[in-house]
Amino acid sequence: MNVPILEIFSSIQGEGLFIGSRQLFLRFARCNLSCGYCDTSIDDKGASCKAEVIPGSKEFTYLPWPLEVKHIMEFICENYNLSKHHSISITGGEPLVHCLVLKEMLPEIKNIKQKVFLETNGTLYEELKQIIDYVDFVSMDIKLPGVSKIKPCWYEHEKFLEVVLNSKAYLYVKIVVSSSVNLDELKTAFKLIKKKRTDITVVLQPVILKEKTLFPTSKQLLYWQELALDYVNDVRIIPQAHKLLDLL
User: Fold this and answer.
1) For the residues of 127-155, what is the DSSP string, one character each?
2) Domain count, the chain
3) What is the C-alpha to C-alpha distance for residues 19 and 32, in angstroms, rounded to an integer?
4) Mean pLDDT, to the nearest integer, of 85-94?
5) For a designed S-S bond to 156, which of 31, 49, 123, 206 qualifies (C-beta 3.0 to 4.6 A apart)?
6) 170-204 pLDDT tens trace
7) Which residues sit opposite 138 in a β-bridge?
8) What does the DSSP 8-state code read for residue 167?
9) 234 to each of 14, 36, 129, 176, 237, how far by Cα in Å?
10) What's residue 1's pLDDT?
């Protein structure tokens, strides 16, 4: 089966609870949402798969696109020391757009004794049901409509949470925040998480855009964290580290 992967590289996880952990990243093309702050090129028109074999070099090998699952597996096993990686990050775009591909690929990843780290916008719950048994870690977004500039996804997020919480996968929730946060939307997100479980760790991630006025103030971030702690037990403010370090 063809695999629409745009990038393969070894780097640190730059977001969320596993920040700084070494991971092998497989970045899939396409997404079912179009968030206003999206900072990742996921267009697959005229695409190729670029692989950074020497970590941090910014030197790329360009692979035929799309690739077969067996070719992806052969490439990563031959070019990366997987024993030195925390997990393989399935990222995008939105990987769950390619559920059928993941149903073939994730068992192969498990066969080589690697853990699967899924980075997702937390909306495609029916697709998640089909592959969740192969996933070890889930980094799930909850989208604030006013920040993401998309229609509300509250129902989809709730159903997604249910699927993950009924599995063995480790979950944390990431909420991107900007200076224009709507407080009612933020409270809705916190209430949604509390409704399911109060021990889910929540990460507030300040948006990083060229428009500096959208970056939250220190006062805002600390206030939102304090507010969130009325609903859940563990709330952390974590920026995107890979951008600060100029890493992929």
Assistant:
1) HHHHHGGG-SEEEEE---HHHHTS---HH
2) 1
3) 25
4) 97
5) 123
6) 999 999 999 999 999 999 999 999 999 999 999 99
7) 118, 171
8) S
9) 19, 27, 26, 16, 10
10) 84
